[in-house]
Amino acid sequence: KAGVTQTPRYLIKTRGQQVTLSCSPISGHRSVSWYQQTPGQGLQFLFEYFSETQRNKGNFPGRFSGRQFSNSRSEMNVSTLELGDSALYLCASSAGTGPYEQYFGPGTRLTVT
Amino acid sequence: EDQVTQSPEALRLQEGESSSLNCSYTVSGLRGLFWYRQDPGKGPEFLFTLYSAGEEKEKERLKATLTKKESFLHITAPKPEDSATYLCAVFGQGAQKLVFGQGTRLTINP
Q: Does B87 touch chain A (CB under 8 A)?
C-alpha cells in the first residue's frame, strides 16, 4: 500500500505571498490531519478533515485554511505569509476520526524569506 | 488543556545499553496514547498505541507501557539504527486531537 504523499517537498516563498500544499492520504483513509512542526513549538495540530468536512481546528490564525476533496485528497493554504510560518508542514491520514493511528507523510519544508 | 512532557530531552547511549524514555501527560479523558519515531528530515513513523493503564506493547527492541499518569518507552540492547527522535502524543476526549510532546532525541553510539 502506498503511503501518504505530500507535494511539493520544498518551497521558498516571500513574505506576503500565499502558498498551497497538497496531501494524498493512504488509499481507503478518509481522515486527513495537518500539523506544523518547528524547533521551538514542536508538532502542533492545524486541522482535521473527514469526508470533506473540517472536524477540528487548532489554535492558528485564519490565514491558515484547508479543504478536502471527495477522493480524500487534501490541501492547505496559508495566505499573507509571515517569516514565522517557516516550518515543516506534515499531513497525516487515518482510517477514521478519533483515536486511530495516524500515518504521516514526509512533509513540505516551507521557507519564508 | 491536554499537556505532554517528555524526558529527557536528549539521551546518548552506547550500543547495547538499555534505557527508558518517559512521557508524562495530563489529559481530559484519555482515549489513546501514541508513540512515534522521527528521523531527521522525515515525517513521524507510527510505533504504538496504548489505550488503558496497564497495557503494554512490544516491537523488536522497543516496549511501551502505560500508567494513569505516564508512559515509558523501554529500549533493550539498542543499536545505532535506533537513533532518532521519539515522540509521544495523547488523544483526549475533550480536545479530540493529537497533542504531542517535544520529543526525546536518542543517539546510540557504536
A: yes
- In this structure, are strands B3-7 and B19-26 parallel, antiparallel, or unpaired? antiparallel
Provide the CA A25 distance to its chain's centre, in angstroms.
Answer: 11
Cβ neighbours of B97 (radius 10 Å)? 21
Cβ contact B91–A98 (<8 Å): yes
Residues in Cβ contact with A12 at an 8 Å cutoff, skipping those fewer than 6 apart = A111, A112, A113
Amino acid identity for residue A105 in this structure? G
Each residue of B19-67: pLDDT tens digit? 999 999 999 899 999 999 999 999 999 999 999 999 999 999 999 999 9
Q: Per-residue pLDDT tens for B52-109?
A: 999 999 999 999 999 999 999 999 999 999 999 999 999 999 888 999 999 999 999 9
Give the residue from chain B lying closest to A89, CA to CA. Answer: B43
Contacts of residue A90 in chain B, CB cutoff 8 Å? 43-44
Chain B residues with beta carbon closer than 8 angstroms to that of A103: 46
